[in-house]
Amino acid sequence: MHELSKGANVGLASLSESVDSVIVSLRWGSQSGEGDADVSVLLLTGDGKVRGDGDFYFYNNPVAADGSVQLLGKTPTGSGNEDRIGFDLTAVPEDITRVVIAASRYGDAHFGELDDLELTLADASGETLLRFAVDGAGTVSALVFGELYRRGGEWKLRAVGQGYGNGLAGLATDFGVDVDDAAEPEETAGQRVEEPLLDAVPAPRPPVEQPAVPKRPARPRTAKKKVTLPKTAKKSLAENESWREARLFPVSALKSDRDRETRATSVLLSVMTQVPEFGRRLTAAFGAPAGRTETFTEVSLPHGDTPRRPDGVIRVERAGKLWTALVETKTNGNALRPDQVQAYMDIAARRGYEAVITLSNDVALEGTPLVDVKTDGRRKHKVALWHLSWAEVAHQAQLLIRHEGVGNAAHAWLLKELLHYLQHENSGCHGFQNMGAAWVPVRNGIDDETLCQGDPRTLEVVESWERLIRQVCLRLGGELGQRVLPVQRAKRGTDPAVRRTALADRLCHEGRLQAELRIDGTPGVLTVTADLRTGRLRTSIEVPSTEQGYPLTRAKRLVRRLAEAPADLHIETLVDDEAGGPRGTLERLRPEPADLLPKNGARITGFRLTLLKGMGSSRGNAESGFIRSVDEAVHRFYGSVVTHLEGPGAPRGAEALREAGAR
């Protein structure tokens, strides 16, 4: 892997032959696990400016219509988060000479608080080609990590490491983006923290006196209107509840796993071709270019004496070149077969295909491949192996039709039908649904106190728990239209295997599984604890207390905001230098908020809100199952508790979750 220093550059073609499409990843971590940033991309012409606001891609404008840029979202890593961006360099307009890759933080947060800042670039096969570690970020709230630029018809990457003191709005304005002055009147031109390293940039504007930066960055003016589902469904014309709406993708005739796999593959691939926004969102993550897409099922391909029939084939054509991926699908709890995947990898390598995509209910974990395959190093052509979970497919469909929008009403309806199909329990595509063969023996070992440290079954349970939490994050994030990610604190180690071993030892000693979720727009980290000894699930959040007002006023304000929360909500006062302060249920505290005040007058630092729930014991997807109980506990806690803490700025979709929590 090529290491870049600040100001250095390298031609992509010198590193790999597969650089028409690349994936750039920005990484960072923090000791608390809570530090984060948002990526942004700007397409610039020869004068160093965007052509218009549409050339600025960020959380509110994540995908280019021509497929040249797509923000692929965040994934947790051992020390923090990785935010990925897919670039189809063949689709970048000819008048664009530079592509700026940056990230920004909110409010008073700055990049000096984050650890291990770095940029990496991978080719279409997924192989990491280069790395740039950013040092000495300091107090800047926006940071240009690097830039892609053209020289003599070739794309190069330059390591930049340049900071902006006034965040996303300052960075955007400095490159010519028209920031919405009505929304953020205080934002003006960008103030650079250091001299630029770019050799084709106009001289920077002289620094000017800037007002305080708002907590939320200003946004560009909105682009063309897109179609999303209505917030409330139209009144049904059915005569009674027994009538079932006709569906484009029926599930009633599915009787075998083979039927489910065939139907699910055909349904998904056909919608990908008919809804370009959705298809591009999925294929960009695999390094595919933007172009005309066709999909096929049950294709026969020669392989020795017996032809192989992958479940599907995806082909994308751009500029006379073909990108091809074989698709292997599993539904229900069926696991991917290594021999099948290996055969498809060999076929793809011989025929010059670019990728093999596996699709199942299982969720891939960092450092733990679902299928081990062997790669023949003598072959010049590289084949990428990617995995996609059905939960991720549903997540992307939810984001588009409920929050971000698609091109027309027909596309929205197709995605709605796809989502209904995937979420129907008879489809076999409703996500991770089995804690594995080790689940019952480990629970029994905890009950009778015979479980020993180092038992490999505890590690299996920890991995299943991590997969479950990833899926819970996907589902909740799709409903809210917000990023929901598991927190992985640096103090637990950066090596995934070492971290999971430590969690397995903790499970052995304490009989508990624990995870933390960070949800955009919430005041704290949501903690989920499964106590296998007591059979109870605990969901909680710590809300910091401001210094404004008297302690009693703060306690009353909290109880008043939780007026519609469940009566059995536990509230505990957090105080300085003590294990815990007064506590009680919301039902008891409503008439007497003063009971939350510590008797010794200790300073209140915050409040911990907790709900307890019994958990299911079965491995599968039965109503009483453990997996379903964890999912329901998180959704109920968010909808019935957390949304009341957010005020009028609650994330999109929070109202529906609040209603679900009340039920």
Topology of this structure?
Blueprint lengths: L1 E3 L4 E3 L9 E9 L8 E7 L11 E2 L11 E8 L3 E9 L9 E7 L10 E8 L5 E6 L8 E10 L2 E11 L2 H8 L82 H18 L1 H9 L7 E6 L14 E7 L2 E9 L8 H14 L3 E6 L23 E6 H15 L4 H15 L15 H9 L8 H25 L3 E3 L9 H15 L1 E8 L6 E6 L4 E9 L6 H11 L8 E6 L7 E3 H4 L14 E11 L11 H15 L13 H9 L1
Parallel strand pairs: 1-10, 15-16, 16-17
Antiparallel strand pairs: 2-12, 3-7, 3-9, 4-5, 4-8, 6-7, 8-11, 9-10, 11-12, 13-14, 14-15, 18-19, 19-20, 20-21, 21-24, 22-23, 22-24
Helix pairs in contact: 2-3, 2-6, 3-5, 5-6, 5-8, 8-9, 8-12, 12-13
Can you describe what's shown?
- The chain is of the alpha+beta class and about 675 residues long.
- β22 (about 570-575) and β23 (about 585) form a beta hairpin.
- The chain is built from 13 helices and 24 strands.
- It is globular.
Strand residue content: 15-25%
Number of helices: 13
Stretches with pLDDT under 50, minimum 5 residues: 181-223, 619-624, 647-654, 656-663
Give a short account of the largest sheet: 7 strands, antiparallel
Write down the overall geometry: globular
Described by its quaternary structure, the protein is single chain
Side-by-side strand order of the widest sheet: 18-19-20-21-24-22-23
The helix content, as a percent range, equals 25-40%
Q: Give the class from helix and strand content and strand pairing.
A: alpha+beta
Number of strands: 24
* End-to-end distance: 53 Å
